[in-house]
Write a structure and sequence with these properties.
With 433 residues, the chain is of the alpha/beta class. 42% of the residues lie in helices and 16% in strands. The longest helix is centred in the C-terminal third of the chain and has 26 residues, at 381-406. The structure holds nicotinamide-adenine-dinucleotide.
Length: 433
C-alpha cells in the first residue's frame, strides 16, 4: 500500500515511512491497523504507534585484517518510549535495512507491553554478513557501531541485547566500549552479557524456554498436552535450538529442523543434543546423519502437529500458510508470519501463538538482568525460572482470555492488550508542550 495519501501528508508523514508493500514495517502497520477498532477512545493516540520516535543511521568503518578499510551501514531505532527506556536486540545480518529495524523496534514496543515490562521498544542492526569477518574484525565492528550509536543507548535510555548473529561476547564488547568512554563500568547498558560481567543466570536459554512454556500453555488451553507431539522447527540458533531441546526433553518429537543452509527430517524424532553438538563443530546441520538431509523448503510439507518458525521475519507467506500441515504455529522469531499468511492460517483454523508473546522470555530475563545489575544483587536459577514462568503464563492467560472475550486471533488479543497499555501511558503523560 502506498502511504503517501493526501491525509497522510496532512499528518506530516515522514519520507522514511514510505515503504514497499510487504515490507516488515508495512506488515507491522497492518497489525496495528487491525486492532485500532478495538481500542475505543485510545485510538485517538494510535498514530503514535505508526511512526518511530527516533531512528539513527550510521556509517561503521573498520580496518580489515588485510589492512583495507570497509564501511558498513548501522541502525538504531527507538519505536516508542512511553512506558520506559527503549529495549531490544542488535542483529548482524547482510539483509538488514532501516525498514526492518523499525518493524523489529515496533514489535518490541508491543511485546514489552504485552508482558507488562517497564520498557519501550527499540532495535538495532548492522548490515553485514558476520560469517565473512574474523573474530578481531567482528570486535572492531561491534565497538565502532557501539560508539556511533552511543548517544542513543544508556541504562535508563535504551538497553540493547543479543539477536540474530550476536551473542554474550558481542554484549561484552558493547558494554566495555560504552564503559570506556564513560570512565566507569556500566553493567546495565546491555543485557545478555556473560555471567562474569553481570549477566543473569538463565538469560541464554530464556527465549527458547519461553517458546517451550507458551507451546505447553497453548496445548493446555486447547485441552491437549505436549506428550508425543511432532514438531518442526525453522532456525536452529539461540531460540530454535534451545526451544527444541526443552520440547524434546519434555516428551515431544522434533521431526524436522531447517537452518539457513539446509533441512534435516526424521519422522522418528531427531536427537536434538546430538544435532546441537554437530552444529557446534560444523556450524550447520547438514550431514549430521541424525535424519535425512532434505531441501530447505521441504520443511513446510512435513507432517507435524506444531511448527515453530525461529529464524527471521516474513518466512510464512500466504503460499507457505496454505501448505503447512500443522494445526499450531508458535512464533519464536520476530515477525515470521505476514498479514496475508495470518489470514490464511485463520481461515484454515490454525492457532498462532504470536511472537510478541511466544518469544518474550528473552526480554523478561533481560529485564531481570537489568534489575539485578542496578541492585548489584544476583538471583539463583530457581528464582529466575519461577519469575519467568509466572510473568509469561500470566501474560498468556490474559491474551487467551481476551481472545475468547473479543473473538479475535491470539495476535489480535495480544495487540489489543499491548496497544492499550502503550496508549494509556501516552494519554496519561499528555503531550509536551
Ligand atoms: P541466531 O543467530 O542464534 O539463529 C538464527 C537461526 O536461523 C540460525 O540457525 C540460522 O541458520 C537460521 N536462519 C537464518 N536465516 C534463515 C533463513 N532464511 N531460513 C532458514 N533459517 C535461517 O538467532 P536467534 O537469536 O535464535 O534469533 C532467531 C529469531 O528469534 C529472530 O527473529 C530474533 O529476532 C528472534 N528473537 C531472538 C531472541 C533472543 O533472545 N535471541 C529473543 C526474541 C526473539
Amino acid at each position: 500500500m502506498n502511504r503517501t495519501s493526501a491525509s497522510a501528508r496532512r499528518k506530516g508523514q515522514l519520507s522514511f515511512l514510505e515503504t514497499e508493500s510487504g515490507s516488515p514495517w508495512e506488515n507491522f502497520l497492518a497489525q496495528i491497523d487491525a486492532v485500532i477498532p478495538h481500542l475505543g477512545e485510545l485510538s485517538r493516540w494510535s498514530e503514535t504507534l505508526k511512526r518511530p520516535k527516533r531512528a539513527l543511521v550510521v556509517d561503521v568503518p573498520i580496518i580489515l585484517d588485510d589492512g583495507s578499510v570497509a564501511h558498513f551501514e548501522g541502525f538504531r531505532v527507538h519505536h516508542n518510549i512511553s512506558r520506559g527506556p527503549a529495549k531490544g536486540g542488535v542483529r548482524f545480518h547482510q539483509d538488514s535495512t532501516l525498514n526492518e529495524v523499525m518493524a523489529l523496534a515496533g514489535w518490541m514496543t508491543i511485546k514489552n507491553a504485552v508482558v507488562n515490562l517497564p520498557f519501550g521498544g527499540g532495535k538495532g542492526a548492522v548490515r553485514v554478513d558476520p560469517r565473512l569477518l574474523s573474530q578481531e574484525e567482528l570486535e572492531r565492528l561491534t565497538r565502532r557501531y557501539t560508539s556511533e550509536i552511543s548517544s542513543m543507548i544508556g541504562p535508563d535510555k535504551d538497553i540493547p541485547a543479543p539477536d540474530v548473529n550476536t551473542n554474550a561476547q558481542t554484549m561484552a564488547w558493547m558494554m566495555d566500549t560504552y564503559a570506556s568512554s564513560n570512565g566507569h563500568t556500566v553493567n546495565s547498558v546491555v543485557t545478555g552479557k556473560p555471567i562474569a560481567l553481570g549477566g543473569s543466570i538463565g538469560r541464554i536459554e530464556a527465549t527458547g524456554k519461553g517458546v517451550f512454556l507458551t507451546t505447553c500453555a497453548v496445548l493446555r488451553a486447547l485441552g491437549d498436552s505436549l506428550e508425543g507431539k511432532r514438531i518442526a522447527v525453522q532456525g536452529f540458533g539461540n531460540v530454535g535450538g534451545i526451544a527444541a531441546q526443552f520440547l524434546q526433553a519434555a516428551g515431544a518429537k522434533i521431526v524436522a529442523v531447517q537452518d539457513v543452509d539446509g533441512c534435516v527430517v526424521n519422522p522418528a524424532g531427531i536427537d536434538v543434543p546430538k544435532l546441537l553438538a554437530h552444529k557446534d563443530v560444523t556450524r550447520g546441520i547438514r550431514d549430521s546423519r541424525l535424519g535425512d538431509d532434505a531441501d530447505r523448503k521441504d520443511l513446510w510439507d512435513v507432517d507435524a502437529d506444531i511448527l515453530i518458525p525461529a529464524a527471521i521475519e516474513s518466512q510464512i507467506t500466504a503460499s507457505v500458510a496454505a501448505r503447512i500441515r500443522t494445526r499450531i504455529v508458535v512464533e519464536g522469531a520476530n515477525g515470521p508470519t505476514t498479514p496475508e499468511a495470518d489470514r490464511v492460517l485463520a481461515e484454515r483454523g490454525i492457532t498462532v501463538v504470536p511472537d510478541v508473546l511466544a518469544n518474550a522470555g528473552g526480554v523478561i530475563v533481560s529485564y531481570f538482568e537489568w534489575v539485578q545489575g542496578f541492585n548489584s544483587l544476583f538471583w539463583r536459577e530457581p528464582e529466575v525460572a519461577s519469575r519467568l514462568e509466572q510473568i509469561l503464563i500470566e501474560a498468556f492467560n490474559e491474551v487467551w482470555d481476551t481472545h475468547v472475550a473479543v473473538g479475535t486471533s491470539l495476535r489480535g488479543a495480544a495487540y489489543i492488550l499491548g496497544c492499550r497499555r502503550v496508549l494509556q501511558a501516552r494519554q496519561q503523560r499528555g503531550l509536551y508542550p
